[in-house]
Design a protein that fits this description.
Blueprint lengths: L4 H5 L8 E9 L2 E8 L10 E7 L1 E8 L4 E7 L2 H14 L8 H30 L1
Length: 128
């Protein structure tokens, strides 16, 4: 039996090569990205992305007025995977300043948008 059954169930076979991971929320989906140490010239991917839907609950927020609010929460399976990843990376890579994480998210989004805009412009130029 594997020491990391959840990661194994996700299809990750080389758990010893994991060196960090990131987790972000995109709407109603949690995105887990796992990074691997790879030798130069390796054909194996350096990272793998997994998407998990969030579960929704309706909870009472004010009992005197019967007010309810819908909340979403992370899947139990994802929480198990994060626990296993946390054990693997020894928590040192997980702790980071929120400002740095937000700047990294913005940088990533800018690259994606710029690439998509360039692609659309190329397609427009082909039409002329």
């Amino acid at each position: 039996m594997s020491t990391y059954p959840t990661l194994t169930e996700m299809g990750i076979q080389s758990v010893e090569e994991i060196y960090k991971y990131s987790l972000r929320q995109e709407g109603d989906v949690d995105v887990l990205k796992v990074y691997f140490r790879r030798e130069k010239g390796s054909l194996l991917p350096r990272s793998k992305k997994f998407k998990f839907g969030r579960s929704h609950k309706t909870v009472r927020v004010d009992s005197s007025h019967d007010k309810y609010q819908e909340i979403s929460e992370m899947s139990a399976f994802l929480m198990k995977a994060i626990d296993e990843l946390h054990d693997l990376v020894q928590h040192e890579h997980e702790v980071q300043d929120i400002r740095e994480r937000l700047h990294a998210d913005i940088d990533h989004l800018e690259k994606v948008v710029n690439n998509k805009l360039a692609e659309i412009r190329r397609d427009i130029d082909k039409i002329k």
